[in-house]
Amino acid sequence: QVQLVESGGGLVQTGGSLRLSCAASGRSFRSYVMGWFRQAPGKEREFVAAISGSGGIRSYADSVKGRFTISRDNDKNTVYLQMNSLKAEDTAIYYCAASARATTRAVPSYEYWGQGTQATVSS
Length: 123
Hints:
mainly beta, globular, four-stranded antiparallel sheet
């Protein structure tokens, strides 16, 4: 069992930055692929980024590539999402999730989810 708690969301202007954190409790954090997803009002939840257990493999959605960076600290059981050059279309609830499978973008592949943190980008 893994419990995930996100933090770091907020209100920022276009072009600004936010750093999201996701603290995990439970066993074997480093054995899980960690992902970030987001959901805007009226839209489906979509993949943002994922990182393998060792941190050696990272994957990004095309819409955030070059602006967002996913990282993890296995000693602190925490995964991060650094978001730079934010746009209005990045406004969403951001969720972190854990998967015991290979690095994946598929929502159903993630067994554990946090409660989400709101990020709002004003133009």
